[in-house]
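Re: zinc ion structure - here you go.
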Amino acid sequence: MKRIPWDQYFMAQSHLLAMRSTCTRLMVGATIVRDKRIIAGGYNGSVSGGVHCIDEGCYIIDGHCVRTIHAEANALLQCAKFGVPTDGAEIYVTHFPCLQCCKQIIQSGIKTVYYAKDYKNHPYALDLFKNAGVETRKVELTELLIDPNYQEKDAYIHHLLEELKRQTNDQEMYQALKTEAESLFRL
Ligand SMILES: [Zn+2]
Ligand SMILES: [Zn+2]
């Protein structure tokens, strides 16, 4: 039995949250963790009870959707709403935080930012994090945690590749397809 590492578990949670995003411009999820416990989560979306970008289209001003509260801010505000301290906590985000979120993360006392994807990593955000002593670490989701059929799919792809190998004389094509399958399915 293989246990899921903590960073993979929390990052998977952020990827799940991202799937709840209502702004179509970018699906982002954020999970705030303290002492290996999830204390809050958020995703890109409108204020509670408001219309959603997925229904009405984004409200764009100067190239930004002004309807959306970012995932990181939503997670922090959930802590504010319920009175949960964020000092010394960690945050797991699917995308590197924007400048506004960067400042809010620092100001809330969060000490480590784990992110899965680089996203317009602003040099000023990097400076701010560094000066505030906030560590940023890239954690890509390497386990296929959020697909309940991943083992069956891996086995199926293996089977297809074996069959292909048996039936084809085109080694070049077989190798190319095998390489692609390995990169997509982490076989
Ligand atoms: Zn939007
Ligand atoms: Zn942001």
